[in-house]
Amino acid sequence: MEISSRYNHKEIEPKILKKWLESTLFKATKSKQPAYSIVIPPPNVTGILHMGHALNNTIQDILIRYKRMQGYQALWMPGTDHAGIATQNVVEKKLAKQGLKKEDIGREEFLKQLWAWRDQYGSTIIDQLKKLGSSCDWSRTRFTMDEGYSKAVTRVFVELWKKKLIYQGDYIINWCPRCKTALSDEEAPHQQREGSLYYIKYPIKGSDDFVVVATTRPETMLGDTAVAINPKDKRYKSILGQTIILPLTGREIKVISDEFVDPGFGTGAVKVTPAHDPNDFEIGQRHKLPSVLVMSPDGSMNENAAGYQGMDRFEAREAILQELTKQKLLEKTEPHSYSVGQCYRCDTLVEPYLSRQWFVKMKPLAKPAIKAVKNGEIKFHPSRWTKVYLNWMENIRDWCISRQIWWGHRIPIYYCRDCQKEVIAAEVKPKKCRQCGSTNLWQDENVLDTWFSSWLWPFATFGWPEKSSKKELDYFYPTDVLVTAPEIIFFWVARMIMAGFEFTGKKPFSDVFIHGTVRDKTGKKMSKSLGNTIDPLGVIDNFGADALRFSITLCAASGSDVYLSDEKFLVGRNFCNKIWNSVRFIFLKIEQANFKIDDLENVEKAAVDKWILDKLSEAIDEISASLDKYRLNDAAKKIYDFFWHDFCDWYIEIIKDDFNLTRAKVSLKVLLSAMKLLHPIMPFITEEVFSLIKQNTNLSLDESIVVSSWSKPDKKISQKEIIEIQTLVATIKEIRNIKAILGITTKKTVLEARASDNRLSFLKENQAWLKRLTFSESIEFKNAAGAEKLSRVLYDSGLWEINLAVKDIEKSNFVAALSKKIESKTVVLTKIQKRLASEQFRKNAPLDKVQEAETAVTDLLTEVNRIKDLKNAFN
């Protein structure tokens, strides 16, 4: 057999991926097996793979591969989202390079170019997910604007319309002047900014007096329709109801009272601009004030803005401030920190803007979705996200679902141009007006919010509402778990739960696994703007997909943020090399001995063989339990510790000079089982090793490790049979530890062992590897029943006592060296304890840094006490 001397991911991973994609290994169909399903959070067609995608999809793939090996018909549903604003921006930029705007070529031609772009580039991220090793059923790949899915979106709109849960109205919404569209609250996240508070004098009609109001947005004052005070504010009681002259316009407005006004803000008197502020809009509604819109959709001032028409909003601000100063109406300016929304796509400051939009009434939809989480029908992992979800749902606001762009699902509302009375919601365009019979109908120009299509994802991907899809929908739906990031709990998770109950009568999934945010090693969130991102495709090229997957899983403690640096991926790469070297060793030994492997049983096992099989059973139990509880990093750590340490560092080291047929079979059994345990996390190398075992033995194995059975623990091994091996391994570890503390790691030493006759026999039988693994020159055996006792006991295992004799070294030297070690480690220990005692450190440091410090204290205390014990033994 020929096995390369080094593991080359650049050769192996593409070869394995090609094999998978040409097979039907990932395909899931309705069968007698129990179903397990996950729907992928559909990446945007404009997207390219980033570390957030890598983490999210690695987690899903681990769960899918695990369940597939457990015998489930495991379906991972893939697909992409049309990403309305983002995709339209991409094609608009392409047009801009040609000196064109979308309006220049018209809606129909623009949509053709959008579809052409999608056909050419829309599958880029899907191809990148395949390189990561994602085992989706790629034959099912869906798109939120494919024909069947679009029918589902239209059906949902019409059903909600019939239930009077959709309405149209003039309300303040978040408006992006750059994208020229409405945004939901979640699409316009607020950030704290440093700005100014401007104090402006508003003249009182027929008087030389002024009312001073404070504002952060003086450009909107041109749309003021009142000045408001709090009814309990005695300072302004005398001017309530008086007429104010709006500066720069000469328009007359009234002083009104409203309990919403905060007397402590600014001067306690505030301008009311119903068309440009959500709170002012509410005040305007209560007092029946007119709404004056002073901006155009592009953020420039319109015809209502007096002499500032055509100016950009910020340009107009400066001009207005200059004129107010000139007229001595600007009393003062103060620095002021305030919260402002930004477009989630282009970072433009959003404008609160009065606009006619379409909305969904959310409170009726929220009730069953709240109940399902409260009664445990749907569980969040970690559970702390339950409170976040419920808080938002219990205070939910109506959802603005219309967008003023061209790429997306056009709102299925039709109007009659002739009688202008008919408004029809229909899945297909009506032939005529029901009022007047006219065929001159036109469709609403707006499209639906992208999230209006993606909230149907868990069931629309299965063909809902088509009757032909019912059997498959009943089999795979509800899905089992949704894996996602915390920032889209409101965007997507909550809405999917509402849609699931409303349109199918069932929950969309049972569990919601919220993973952490990917950050750099300093704790900053990875982002292009900060320039601190790590390209997962670069990591795959340099280290391999398996190395990326294993390293990122090992870092991803349940729900905690993930701190990454290039160095972290060395862990995964080195693990691949360790696996490969162990495989080469085992097959080289088998080849040298010319063993024929027809089965992995039918041999007489020694204690050390039973010991490693028992450790394997323990690993299977722990890894399975960790995966069942979504503790994926614990599973990764356990398989790493078992394979690297128990199997390679101990079992292989113990047997390498005594390799027989039993050891060959046991080694292959452990190797095969370990590869299955590791497969969900590191699919490529485990598939390659599985293939090597299949090719170079006569074992009856499955077509691929992908569809092989999950490892099962062997419960037949008695603990009495392996207790001596466990104790001997612990003894060797302790001797190594003692020698490391004493600084004589490689120096030849003499061991003195004292035990009963039967224990001495065991030690003598295994003294070859006991000497080799402790780097000892010889072992002196002494009977515990004899009169002679060891002069100094450095380690008592409970089965035997061990002393260490070191030639040509004075014990006083050891004592001095140990004293120095105690002193230096105590200094470090005190420093960390002082840091942990600081409230500021515990408050500001990332949780993993606090836990790291606490662990360091525990480890140092243990080490210091151990060194003290050694020092006492030598004194």
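the 2nd protein, sequnce then structure:
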Amino acid sequence: MDLESAPALHAGDRLGRFLLVREIGKGGFGVVFEAEDTALRRRVAVKVIRPKPAMSAAGTTAARWLRPEAEAAAQLRHPNVVTLYDAGSWDGGTYLVYELLRGRTLAEALDAGPLARAEAVRVMRDLARALAHLHAAGVVHRDVKAANVFVDADGTVKLLDLGLSQIAGSAGHAAGSPPYAAPEQWRGERADARADVYAWGVLGHELLCGKLPEGPPPPGPQRLGSLRGLVAAARSEDPDLRPADGGALAGALDRIERRRARARGARVAAVGLVLGAIAFLVAWPTERQIARNVSTSLEAYQKYAAGRRCLERPSEGASWLRLDCGRHFREALAIDPDFPLAHFELAALARWDAHPDVEIAQALEPALQRIDRLPRREQAQLRAWKAELDGDAAQSVQILRALSEDYPQDAQVAFGLGEAFYRQGLHADAVAPLERTVELDPGLELAADELVWSLGLLDRTDALRALADRMAASAPSPGTLHAEVQARGWIGDLDGALRVARRAAVGGGGAAREDLEDALVAAGQWDEAEQLLAEDVARGTERAPHRLESLLLLRGRIAEARALVARQPAPADGRLRFIAGSQRMHRLAATRDVVAMERIVDETRAWSPQLAAGFAPVLAYAGDAARAQALLPAVTEPGAREMTRALIAWRTVGAASALPQLRRLARADPAAVSSLPPEGPAWLAAECAAQADRAEAAIDDVHRFQRFYFPLGLWRAWAYPRSLVVEARLLAELGRPAEAIRALDRLDALWTRADPDLSLHVEARALRTRIAAADFTAARASGWRRP
């Protein structure tokens, strides 16, 4: 039946599982009802479609024009876009099912009077973010207007009628409402994202000026440095003079807001300078004795500022590990050796760069000597660092908690507390201050990165999904895109992670390229990942050889991996030698070559006994319980001590004795083990569980390790292929042969070019044969006969 002849519906009628409760509105496309979803027991909004004459005249049926567009719209998830749940047809027409909103449309709000400027700007910003999400997904709304923007009861801005304008466009109807429709829509031309930008500009003018525009803006390019200039540019009659899409709009708005914030800060600072100058002149004799907390050298301060930017924006460097940031602070100290803030930052970096505690303390000492010259905030952070180095983690946290209460709006203070918990492996405690940091300063990229890792280690899938959606809703930046890639990877949305990573890496390198390579590996597109990594190696990218080695090992190409390592020059720097030795140590965990591992421990001890002791868990895993026990007194990290004891018990008493501790450590609560690769505890729990003969629970542990989003990790490179064989064996033991074979098929796909006769491949082939034989025997026992 054509929709034009659809009979009327009323409250009390049913559409499939939806019971219509009451009519709540009418629009150009149909009638909207509040309805009860009787299957899911929730209230929804059901829009019954009334087709445009052009649709019916063209003979367009519901099935042809509704389903494809509605399915595309239903894939979008954004806090500023109404959620489309379902779509369907019945014997009298067609309907769409949306989330039920409580509030009023923006048109109704404007009828009651103009909005306050701050509220108007918020609506414009949220609407730009909604359009950015739509356009990034390849969706054009085509009918943005005040009546299609909803302000929920809690103030949330929602873009409405998603799908309907898409449907109209597909059916040949020229979507768009005067006066919001772009000139190209009036001309009947195909509308792209710039038509939505035009409508946003008209709506922005209406919000800022209290009325609709009376004509086009002046011809030619507009200045984008102000909100009014951006609105005028969006209304340009020439589409090429408008921002390209919603992402460009949102980015321009963010830049305007940042400039306004800096201008406000500059005005406050100017007032402070004037007051300070007055006080200085009045109290000259005593003021001269007040020690400086910044450098007297402008050049030194500029170097320091460059270092801070490097720390806060790792996406702008070659890697997310911030390997080059220290040079800025060293350059600052070369100009002004008494610059206490530069000393403080170098000490903080020494901790992240795997320096021994004694070297960190040496780096911290110059700042401690000048602690009275530091601002109060930095003084407290410095004392917290000192307490942690002295082994008093509780005192460190107490100092930082008090500081966060004194500076509740300071993102750096919130991050300091979150990072302290993160370093100590207290990820459950780290979540709240890291979330606060992201809320206060979305541009502090490391906070979002560490928040993703903490939520991932804690298996908080819902929180990760919400974080990914929040990052997608914000203006795109390298930091938000990185966090979204990581969050989607952790929740298993590998296609989504790859899609975002490709978008972030367009025309870029460094951290964004590493994210793309990781996402490709996770999504099983190994050949493309290998090509990118080989290009990085040829360019001399520092981490590329190690990452390519991981991929080769993951794919069973051991000989190529060894040849690649052999071609790399031996590092001269002690720290780099330790890092290289640590990588070899963890690779040797695969073969449990105790002799070679002990040699690395001895080499490391000559540089740092403390870091050598950090190898105790790996030695215990390899079966060298005696050497691990000897190193245990020098292990300072609580999680590493507990891990070492559990592994020693596993190797000397049995797997069942170690499994509870290993499972808890794998979930990073209460203590992580920083001396192991991040995925290491997850694999240890999985392998131990498999040996403890708890098949059902062991499969959960194996799957958790496989979901761990560290695609090119040191242990994942050799443990992931093993996990597939372990999974297949456990499934076979549980009488699930089809699933077991699928696990082995995944290994075969991964190892298409593996070295011949690898022991694990031999084991996998033998297991496949046994599974097939057992299946054949079971079939015969049940009465099956060969035809």
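The longest strand covers residues 18-26. Residues 74 and 742 are 31 Å apart (CA to CA).
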